[in-house]
Amino acid sequence: MLFEGSQERNTNKPLLIDPATPEATMNTSELVEKPNVNTDTLDHDKLNSWISFCMKQWEIRGYQDEELLDVYQEDFEGWSKDIFGMAHAVLTRDLRNFLRDWGVYIPKTKGAGGEINKNLEKLLQLEKPGEWPREEFDKQVKAKTFFSRDMKQLYQQYYGVASQDTPAATPGVVPKA
Description:
Layout (H helix, E strand, L loop, with lengths): L43 H18 L3 H11 L5 H6 L2 H13 L11 H13 L8 H10 L5 H11 L18
Helix pairs in contact: 1-4, 4-5
């Protein structure tokens, strides 16, 4: 066992693997401890580091759709809009966009970052993934920034396009028009 409990969830996705190294090599140099929102003294750096760490690890493991929602809820359990508000606004916006790009519906509202924080908090309470409203899905398609299996299926449903014509599902690569 690599770390206590690391093999319980999914043995196909090892903990803290650096994609540039063989899977047997652990990269613990960037390990970030999860902030305990009930007991820790919270500060911007601690919260920002955790948000960045989570997004990096989710991308390495290829989480998307309902699985991504599940790990988001695990990793941010107990967070409130006020705690999200303590983090840098660019990171909370990036977190919202990451979730959207990988198939988790969260509203993309304009205005102050407070709306993002409220929506991130609401997402923690969902028991199942939210449905993508057609208008929101169309915005995501127009931006060409979706990569999940579920979103590709929804694209086919809405637009009637064969799977080979849907945008590519390559992490970090935005499909071209």
